[in-house]
Amino acid sequence: MQTRRTWGSIAAAALIVAACSTGGAPTNAPTNAPTNAPSTAPTDAPASGTAAPSNPFGEGEGEVNLVIWAGYAEDGSTDPAFDWVNPFEELTGCQVNVTAMSDSNEGVSLMQSGNYDGISASGDATTRLIAGGYVEAIDTSEFPNYANVFPGLKDLPHNTVDGVNYGVPHGRGPNLLMYNTEEITEAPTSWDAMWEGGSDYVGQISVYDSSIYIADAAVHLMATQPELGITDPYQLNQEQFDAAVALLEMQAANDPLYWSSYTDQMASYTAGDVVVGTTWPLQVQLLQGEDPPVPVAAVKPDEGTTGWSDTWMLAKDADHPVCMKSWMNWMMGPEANSQATVWFGEAATSPQACDAAEAISPGHCETQHADDEAYWDNIYYWATPQEDCADADEATTCKTQDDWVQAWTTITGS
Predict the structure, then answer these.
(1) 245-281 burial code (b ≥16 CB/10 A, e <16)
(2) Which domain holds residue 178?
(3) Under a CB-based contact definition with an 8 Å cutoff, are residues 184 and 301 in contact?
(4) Do residue 84 and residue 190 come from a single domain?
(5) How far apart are CA 311 and CA 305, in angstroms?
(6) Same domain, 87 and 154
(7) pTM score, whole prediction
(8) What tens digit of pLDDT does each residue of 239-284 get?
């Protein structure tokens, strides 16, 4: 069956001019701010005529070129209340240039070009970038703001190899089940509507268009077919992988709409084309903040879910390493991290960032479980599928990243 994609053409037309712009909003930046946005721009930028704080890394090279998840470098052009780019530029003299990626596969490809100083990488990109030698090892003691980061975000397997760090944290979040509350009046507790129950929503299911979504099928199978023995949804042997592919093929038969840009997904919910799907917290809060609000809500189902813990990484032989390190430290600081995580609907990375977020969006860190490690126990951060199953057991063999991409291409017909 040829599956469908929703392209969000109306939203895209308004945003093309922002692509790769200097210090501009990401290419698929939203057109509406969250309902909890403050009424005035942040006040942490140095006032005109006031000396800016010193940059701990010294004088920069004048610019920094970033590969980002859209929404990770807001400059106030989308909403004046959210701007952590201009204060950084004033502080460091480093002009911020951004290119937004649609998924981690694109992000890795962009970094392989050698044209960028760094990336906001999820775990399904970090391992590939480290193994390929595309990013630099770092000394976290160089970054003053790293000392304040929650312990649960330090030295994680997706960005640390043999005790060597390859980046600093940005924020973390879960992939949620979003549903139209007028069409689905009882809050779901399972991912079933996306899978076995999908025949009730033919043509109205919203699916993230990336091979990493195969892990979402694996998470569901962990609960519904425990005999498969899946313990890590990203490291699947042949039998486990085949079961996940079969589940995805069943889903594809229900004619889902695949989204790669979050504005595309928002447009499909606003138009009423879809009623249930996997999403990020960002879309939920933006849709709820529309005028009038789009009737949606979201839950983390009982089976658990996939998610992300993103890392700012320095490119190997970066042209602007001082500016990139300055950006990495800035993004862990309370001013930038509070704004960025409120904007995207992520968990902040430090108590100081949580304090700053409270002034922007009261209750943000509690809502996003920033320091509640138990909440993250059944959230499986995106990771790279590896032939060695990412373990020390030489007897086990798993499907590779290439296998996942090939299977996804076959499933979606693209």
Answers:
(1) bebbeebbebbbbbbbbbbbbbbbbbeeebbbbbbbb
(2) 174-306+380-412
(3) no
(4) no
(5) 20
(6) yes
(7) 0.81
(8) 999 999 999 999 999 999 999 999 999 999 999 999 999 999 999 9
